[in-house]
Structure to design on (244 residues):
């Protein structure tokens, strides 16, 4: 009991105890990830979280308020608390990424966001990533070669870019990127409906990894920009093929 009270004591630097709650939010997210819980799965109960993380019930409740605000936990009648992805679904509905309804402006905004994020993480990766990190990135990319269905290819494509952003070392950027997963996957699906060649996808990713391996900032930035521009061209072919 003394240990639990010590963890929830307010520190002089954070008089409102926010550091404790924020740290617990990260711990809960890590716990959910380590258990492999997916959207719709039952969320750990307050009692489980207290026992697993050694936190007081009041602190756990404060952390859950934060997680609910971010749309990562949802309470449903008869189901209790479940793992949710509310923000991603909200973004998906807002941008309406479906053929015939897709907003070209919204698409450009998302691709612009991706360009900024994926170019930005390159500097951190070049400076901090080990050869083992880059080998792991290659391994994620190699999964693509064993796939046949477009939906599987889309998921694997996103997983590569997700792993790339994760190597950037910024959890907030990574969480934001993951919120956009349904939208980004829709973008990828549009591109693959125009031209699906998994060897091309694999080769494009391999070029990115090689540029990082060579610590070539200019080549990496160029390759990211080229990939985003190709996505824009695929969208224009889908929305208005007469202009091609």
């Amino acid at each position: 009991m003394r240990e639990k009270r010590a963890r929830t004591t307010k520190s002089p630097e954070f008089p409102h105890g926010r550091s404790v709650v924020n740290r617990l939010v990260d711990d809960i997210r890590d716990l959910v990830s380590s258990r492999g819980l997916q959207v719709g799965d039952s969320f750990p109960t307050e009692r489980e979280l207290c026992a697993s993380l050694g936190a007081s019930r009041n602190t756990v409740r404060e952390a859950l308020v934060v997680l609910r605000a971010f749309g990562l936990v949802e309470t449903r009648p008869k189901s209790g608390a479940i793992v949710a992805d509310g923000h991603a679904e909200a973004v998906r509905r807002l941008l309406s990424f479906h053929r015939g309804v897709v907003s070209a402006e919204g698409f450009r905004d998302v691709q612009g966001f991706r360009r900024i994020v994926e170019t930005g993480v390159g500097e951190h990766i070049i400076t901090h990533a080990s050869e083992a990190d880059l080998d792991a990135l290659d391994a994620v990319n190699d999964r693509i070669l064993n796939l046949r269905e477009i939906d599987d290819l889309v998921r694997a494509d996103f997983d590569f870019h997700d792993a790339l952003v994760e190597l950037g070392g910024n959890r907030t950027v990574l969480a934001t990127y993951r919120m956009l997963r349904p939208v980004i996957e829709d973008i990828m699906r549009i591109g693959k409906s125009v031209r699906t060649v998994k060897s091309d996808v694999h080769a494009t990713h391999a070029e990115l990894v090689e540029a990082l391996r060579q610590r070539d900032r200019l080549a990496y930035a160029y390759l990211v920009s080229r990939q985003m521009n190709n996505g824009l061209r695929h969208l224009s072919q889908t929305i208005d093929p007469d202009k091609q």
Confidence is low (pLDDT under 50) at residues 1-18, 97-102. The first helix runs from residue 2 to 7. The chain is about 70% helix and 5% strand. The CA atoms of residues 97 and 186 lie 6 Å apart.
